[in-house]
């Protein structure tokens, strides 16, 4: 778990400024929720934290994002390494449908380290599924396809796949928007546990969820300031 320091972040799509002059610090072992109307720049901000904009045509990021003082945009820093340190979970659970549960957990790890030993892989599958509160539900069906799980289980499988890579930071872009209320609460409980090991940043449309899970909420504002993508912070604990 590492501290994130964002300095003078401006993000453009062509000439359009989607996130403007954001500087903020996100503490290790904390959950920060980003909230605000659709189109205000939440996802755009989140993607800057793991250099996802590099795969979006026309996107341009200015400023810096540091993890414990190391600039993720620094000269010579490999974006692949950044994405290993800063994992991402998406709105729609996206396990690889033709892969088994076990293969899904290992998918991200194998991208980085093809020569993982069988015993090591099995331990990692177990510890990651335990870490995602999914082990008890799937331990007898690890070779069955991930697509056979419920939506909430699939999302926890995606979280297991993300933490199997042993990141420092976990980003979640509306991780519960596609889930029913019970599955949502299960993922919220999981977030509270993951906070012990990771720095967590979530995007949510749900004010109650932000209040329930987060230590700090960042409101992206368009109208209030008359500017696009301005961040206003609110500390839940004060
Ligand atoms: P939010 O996540 O808050 O809904 P986004 O970060 O997705 O907002 O979008 C912020 C603004 O940037 C919106 O006006 C959106 O239309 C625009 N935008 C997002 N992605 C792109 C893109 N790939 N190309 C051009 N404009 C984009
Ligand atoms: P979200 O609110 O979750 O960001 P959107 O529906 O706004 O989702 O965007 C979905 C996808 O479309 C994103 O990958 C975003 O980058 C892209 N997108 C959004 N707005 C634009 C735009 N004006 N031009 C091109 N791509 C866009």
UniProtKB/TrEMBL annotation:
PROSITE patterns under this entry?
ABC_TRANSPORTER_1, ABC_TRANSPORTER_2
- UniProt-listed GO biological process terms: phosphate ion transmembrane transport
Q: Does the keyword Transport apply?
A: yes
Question: Known InterPro entries for this protein?
Answer: AAA+_ATPase, ABC_transporter-like_ATP-bd, ABC_transporter-like_CS, P-loop_NTPase, PstB-like
What Gene Ontology molecular-function terms does this entry list?
A: ATP binding; ATP hydrolysis activity; phosphate transmembrane transporter activity
**GO cellular component annotations, sorted alphabetically?**
membrane
Stretches assigned to the ABC transporter domain: 4-238
Alphabetically sorted, this entry's keywords are: ATP-binding, Nucleotide-binding, Translocase, Transport
Report the superkingdom from the record: Bacteria
Which range is the signal sequence, renumbered to this chain?
Answer: none
List, alphabetically, the PANTHER family matched. Answer: ABC TRANSPORTER I FAMILY MEMBER 17 (PTHR43423)
Q: What is this protein called?
A: Phosphate ABC transporter ATP-binding protein (PhoT family)
């Amino acid at each position: 778990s590492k501290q994130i320091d964002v300095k003078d972040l401006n993000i453009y799509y062509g000439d359009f400024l989607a996130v403007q002059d954001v500087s903020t610090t996100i503490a290790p072992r904390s959950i920060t929720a980003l909230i605000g109307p659709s189109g205000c720049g939440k996802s755009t901000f989140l993607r800057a934290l793991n250099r996802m904009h590099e795969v979006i045509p026309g996107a341009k990021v200015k400023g810096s994002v540091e993890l414990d003082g190391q600039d993720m945009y620094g000269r010579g820093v490999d974006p692949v390494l950044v994405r290993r340190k800063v994992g991402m979970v998406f709105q729609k659970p996206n396990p690889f449908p033709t892969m088994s549960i076990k293969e899904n957990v290992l998918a991200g790890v194998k991208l980085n380290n093809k020569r993982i030993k069988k015993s090591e892989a099995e331990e990692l599958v177990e510890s990651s599924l335990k870490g995602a509160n999914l082990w008890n539900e799937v331990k007898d069906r690890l070779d069955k396809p991930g697509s056979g799980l419920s939506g909430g289980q699939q999302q926890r499988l995606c979280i297991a796949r993300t933490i199997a890579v042993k990141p420092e930071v976990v980003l979640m872009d509306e991780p519960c928007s596609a889930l029913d209320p019970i599955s949502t609460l299960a993922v919220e409980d999981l977030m509270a546990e993951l906070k012990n090991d990771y720095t967590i940043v979530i995007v949510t449309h749900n004010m109650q969820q932000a209040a329930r899970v987060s230590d700090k909420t960042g409101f992206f504002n368009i109208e209030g300031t008359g500017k696009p993508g301005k961040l206003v912070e609110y500390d839940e604990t004060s």
